[in-house]
């Protein structure tokens, strides 16, 4: 269907399903949750399409010298989104907490959640649709990428017309070259072919496993943040707050983490990815995530003591910093660079899907695992787990395996997409590339 067309469809899905999620209806709590799940499931198709398309489109528009920084910058905007989401949560919860006074849960369990609290989560979900909708016009004004039009759609005339418009120059003289490239059949193998497995099988294994392992660690950290902050006393016990005030406290803690480590880590990657390279940043990120997880877990009791709690938060923030100045950014960048154009967004989607499978493991597995070993201290409805300390040790081991599987991922710094994939190059192209390393292939 093309990058541009699906890019528009994914955006419409996200906007519609964000609004519908906020309007989830039902005559009972279970009914509301069922409706919410229905729309969040469909919302996931938008997110699932947007990830590979954003990376692929940017990789096909950028030149080889700055491609890593451009793709990483697209992903780094997620950091501002996380920060923005936290700020929206703070504003909405603070407004409702001020307007509707409620006692703490320990004082009056039923009255601690005021009826108006139902609007809090709905507003937070629907606000996301506004920022998404604002991008629709610019997405639709963007021409289809030349790589897709030439190599997949096989439409040389459209490539020349699109690129002439983008570059503001006349490229009619280049049409014969584009026709030659678009009719090239030397790389016509499919995703399930022996040729693909021979050329890119290990690369795809590397990108899927590293993204899978990263997201186990990354999303489990996000989801039991409140348990960690409660364990070290940074957030009051839930029984000492009303429902809306608890939202405010958790949003504040997560916003501080985003501000101090998440956003900073993303933009360190943008600044250094085309200098250090993808491989070095990913390996370094996994290494420091492993180190900090073990540094938090082994002397865990030490960190729970009141004088040491700020140190715990700083080290915990550093694990997020090196996730984002590390594999959380590079796993998004690399799959968009190392496979041929007609399989690029597909393989990126497969890698991202593996990551979300890891997020499921992290979300459900560690939500249970992080529960206290003492049955009296577990959250309502949960069996005893292994506790936060051993959960952090497990995450450290997972990050270590991420380092090992990074060895399967090739370095793509300073190489054109054609060099990386072996597409559309003849001997003359190869000689010119060797003579002039700054040259970029037109498509």
UniProtKB/TrEMBL annotation:
Topology in membrane: Multi-pass membrane protein
Any one annotated GO CC term: membrane
InterPro entries associated with the record: MFS_dom, MFS_sugar_transport-like, MFS_trans_sf, Phos_permease
Pfam families documented for this protein: Sugar_tr (PF00083)
Annotated GO biological process: phosphate ion transport
Localisation per UniProt entry: Membrane
GO MF assignments: phosphate transmembrane transporter activity; symporter activity
Transmembrane region(s): 70-96, 119-138, 202-220, 250-272, 279-298, 310-334, 346-370, 390-409
Basic and acidic residues bias: start-end ranges: 419-433
Coiled-coil region list: none
Residues of the signal peptide: 1-22
Keywords of the record: Membrane, Phosphate transport, Signal, Symport, Transmembrane, Transmembrane helix, Transport
UniProt-listed PROSITE patterns: MFS
NCBIfam families in alphabetical order: 2A0109
Protein name: Major facilitator superfamily (MFS) profile domain-containing protein
Provenance organism: Gossypium barbadense (Sea Island cotton)
């Amino acid at each position: 269907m093309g990058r541009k067309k699906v890019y528009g469809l994914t955006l419409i899905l996200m906007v519609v399903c964000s609004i519908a999620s906020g309007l989830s209806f039902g005559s009972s709590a279970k009914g509301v949750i069922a409706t919410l799940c229905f729309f969040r499931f469909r919302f996931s198709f938008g997110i699932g399409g947007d990830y590979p398309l954003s990376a692929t489109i940017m990789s096909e528009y950028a030149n080889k010298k700055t491609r890593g920084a451009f793709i990483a910058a697209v992903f780094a905007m997620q950091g501002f989104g996380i920060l923005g989401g936290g700020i929206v949560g703070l504003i909405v919860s603070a407004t409702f907490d001020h307007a509707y006074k409620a006692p703490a849960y320990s004082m009056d369990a039923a009255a601690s959640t005021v009826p108006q609290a139902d609007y809090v989560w709905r507003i937070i979900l629907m606000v996301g649709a506004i920022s998404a909708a604002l991008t629709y016009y610019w997405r639709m004004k963007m021409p289809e990428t030349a790589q897709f039009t030439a190599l997949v759609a096989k439409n040389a005339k459209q490539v020349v017309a699109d690129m002439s418009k983008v570059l503001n120059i006349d490229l009619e003289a280049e049409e014969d070259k584009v026709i030659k490239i678009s009719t090239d059949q030397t790389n016509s193998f499919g995703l399930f072919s022996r040729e693909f497995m021979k050329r890119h099988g290990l690369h795809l294994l590397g990108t899927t496993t590293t993204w899978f392992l990263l997201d186990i660690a990354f999303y489990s950290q996000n989801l039991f943040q409140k348990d960690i902050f409660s364990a070290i006393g940074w957030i009051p016990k839930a029984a000492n707050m009303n429902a809306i005030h608890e939202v405010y406290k958790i949003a504040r803690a997560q916003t501080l983490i985003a501000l101090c480590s998440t956003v900073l880590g993303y933009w360190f990657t943008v600044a250094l990815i085309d200098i250090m390279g993808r491989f070095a940043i990913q390996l370094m990120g996994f290494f420091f995530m492993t180190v900090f997880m073990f540094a938090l877990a082994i002397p865990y009791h030490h960190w729970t003591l009141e004088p040491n709690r700020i140190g715990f938060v700083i080290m915990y923030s550093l694990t997020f910093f090196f996730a984002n100045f590390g594999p959380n950014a590079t796993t998004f960048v690399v799959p968009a660079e190392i496979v041929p154009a007609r399989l690029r967004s597909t393989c990126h989607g497969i890698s991202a899907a593996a990551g979300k499978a890891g997020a499921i493991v992290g979300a459900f597995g560690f939500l249970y695992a992080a529960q206290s070993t003492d049955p009296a201290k577990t959250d309502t409805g949960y069996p005893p787990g292994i506790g936060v300390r051993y959960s952090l040790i497990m995450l450290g081991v997972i990050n270590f395996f991420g380092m090992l599987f990074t060895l399967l991922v090739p370095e793509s710094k300073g190489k054109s997409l054609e060099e990386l994939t072996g597409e559309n190059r003849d001997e003359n192209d190869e000689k010119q590339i060797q003579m002039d390393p700054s040259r970029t292939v037109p498509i």
